[in-house]
User: Fold this.
Amino acid sequence: MTNSYASRGLRESATFDRATINDIQRAATTGIYDIRGWGAKRALPHFDDLLFLGASVSRYPLEGYREKCGTDVTLGGRHALKPITLDIPITIAGMSFGALSANAKEALGRGATEAGTSTTTGDGGMTPEERGQSRHLVYQYLPSRYGMNPDDLRKADAIEIVLGQGAKPGGGGMLLGQKITERVAGMRTLPVGIDQRSACRHPDWTGPDDLAIKIAELREITDWHTPIYVKVGASRPYYDTALAVKSGADVVVLDGMQGGTAATQQVFIENVGIPILAAIGPAVAALQELGVHRQVQLIVSGGIRNGADVAKAIALGADAVSIGTAALIALGDNDPRYQAEYEALGSSAGFYDDFQDGKDPAGISTQDPILAARLDPIAGGKRIANYLRVLTLEAQTIARACGKSHLHHLEPEDLVALTVEAAAMAGVPLAGTSWIPGR
Amino acid sequence: MDPRLDQRTGDAVTLTQAPVHIETVDLAVSTVRELNQALHATDDGTSWVVDTPAGQHNIAVGIDRDLDLVVNGHVGYYFAGMHQKGRVTVHGSAGVGLAENIMSGTVHVTGDASQAAAATGQGGLVIIDGNTGARCGISMKGVDIVVGGDIGHASAFMAQAGRLVVCGDAGEGLGDSIYEARIYVKGTVASLGADCVEKPLRPEHLAELAELLTLAGRTDAPTDFRRYGSARTLYHFAAVNAAAY
Amino acid sequence: MCGIAALQIRDVGLRASLGELMHGMLCGIVDRGPDSAGLAIYNDPTLTPAGTSTVTVLNAELTPDALAAALRDALPPAVGVTVTVTGFGETTLINAQIGTGALEDAITSILPGVQIAGRGEHAAVRKGTGHPLDLAELYDLRSATGSQGLSHTRMATESAVTAAGSHPFTVADDLCLVHNGSFSNHATIRRQLRAEGVTCDSENDSEVAARFIAWCLAAGDTLTTALEKLGSVFDGFYTLVVTTATSMAIVRDPIACKPAIIAETDAWVAMASEYRALAHLPGIESARIFEPAPGVVYTWTLDSTKELVTL
Assistant:
């Protein structure tokens, strides 16, 4: 395509490319910023820039399929009387009923349960479908407190206090009117059809000293049974992790800027926060300095796609990863079989990010009953379980090649970087050298 | 409410019934953890007295019983957080987040309450005889709040549902970005927040106000109040409102 | 992110109990900041004897005796200057019957680059890392007397857990600042102050506020005006308490998320992050208790007049 323009002597500006021109024209036409779903779409330093050093002579690999490579992870043992043990270190990230259809939420619960892992509510409360189908359900505690309910709090297997997410650290939530149906509005105590705004700060505490009291309150309400996670968007991960630990968190959830969202300003998604590759090292350093690495677990998210990403995140020091966008794709988001409908919406399979519009042909990011009915929660659950199994098997394959009997035995020394940038951000040597930039 | 009275009728308990046993917990001796655990495990219909709270945090959070509880002294953050069913009275003042996310029942504070009183409350009734700090009724979702004195700034921010009754004055930015909650103020309002406007006080409003004042044991005349609520201009994103978002 | 407790005593008869009352207040804010703490005590005749200057240094490389001996040698041999040096863990308190500037110069000539954490004729500043109640024992807080005092417990946000990062920050004679919250444009203000010739010791956000106020006061502003200017320049969330030889001022940012409660009687005025730190004060039952309004500077001086100015 570009070549045909080039052959005609036409030259596109790298600064004002066609997408930028379109953005400017759209802004001039509408007078309001662009809101969309998905996460950062720009190219960012990512796990692709890291490689594993498989065993050869100096180290011995483990035999695939026969020699054990454990994948379980226990979350929340620091203070909670009932920590969660998952079979695999890959969890489903928080996505609200409201942003997603009830069928999609149910499918995520079914898939997670079949694969032995947890799923997470979102900004909007817990649905019976989701609770019913999820063996391990993490209940998010967000600034809006939509649908916040002590009965559900006590039903949760873990509580995740959300301070931010990778797509928009420092920003609040948003759900446009098309998705505020009667059921969604009822759960959130809002008028039907309004454009719902969520606050960026919690209403009744600000800062780590008050967070410590808030965490103690949630522990008291749940009689100290339930693990308490603190989720932050990656921006200052060293300090945020240290303060979450000091405030009493059992688990820190760190979401990089590739992490998805249902609806946020595009300028926010693309320009605020740091990639997960750069965020894990500082968070792990904070945990190590406080002497709680692997006692306070670190769950990382934002751009996890395959088992290599899982293994790399764990090698850098994470205890588990979370998937959101990838789980939606596994469910059928952006599936080419809906190509004609994506085109009709002005998009294309592989490009569709208007999760805020509620017109998702795949029936996932919608509250339209006809569209939502397209997603069979049982079949969707199977797809999620399949995908989680593949991620796990892939991560195990890599870990065994590195001679590890458990995914958690992977370490930064198993990694090298392909680029100077990735070496500096991840704190591992440039391949073929012993050089870690900045060290 | 006097725990010795019948909770449904308000009458004195007749002599044919067994005398009500009142469990007393002294927080100079027992821990908040022990108290809360006992309150979570107790039966409906029990009565409790808590002494020496000394401003400790998270006292009586997560109650889900039809019980009566009286606290003698001041309480810290999140007193009666996520409260359900019971009737709770503090003879003293309360810290940040009094009765946050209350679902049902009654929480009554005879003194002042700090910031974020009854924040995100979904139901029930919160009565504060004195003043509150900032953000009273922030993101309220159905709770009724009656404040005998003044409330601080940014109160009823993003208030979604429920009624906030203020017998004194309201601080700056009252009801900013309010949804469908209704606010009644007897005194002055320093300023209204974005999208919050004065609305006419119609008979149905006078009736609900009278009922709330009576429930709170107050004698203020409903006609002395003014009503505030949402102008509903921010319900849908519009470029002309960009400055208000 | 932290706990603050401050007390100004108007009733002269109650000043013998300053340390005892402050100890009770400190107990009420320990949970808010367990990693380090600091104190400023005003007009304790033992800590800041009349007619002397007092300078606090952190992590001095000399023992108190060695430092005292070196100072006696370094100071001009005139009129028999008495030098007293007392060690309190990471803090060393130095008194001498000369001006603060001359004493500071003598100290830095012996200990080049040493961190000076307190200075003045009335205020004794001590701070360090560790549990606040352990530090209170080390500083023998309960025995302190005086006209006013300030305490701070710290949960460090973006700067290191060190004695230097502990509050109060004292960057001019008898001027102490404590902060609960976090500034979000302090780097720019630090650069502006440096351009004006102000030296900063650390990357700590609260130090910048202390430097800014000292800079305003040096230019002739009142404490109230200086805090009003701070409100127009600094972004962020803060509850600040600033004390001088005769005054105590309290201000919260215009959004006012960080907690603060003030109690006032004829005998004293007290401020704390939480009510529990005030509950034991004598006469608290009948005190006027209120939360400071957002963006309003409250100032009390020891002649008990109060200014109230809205930003």
About this structure: Helices of chain B lie at 32-41, 203-215. Chain B has a mean pLDDT of 92.
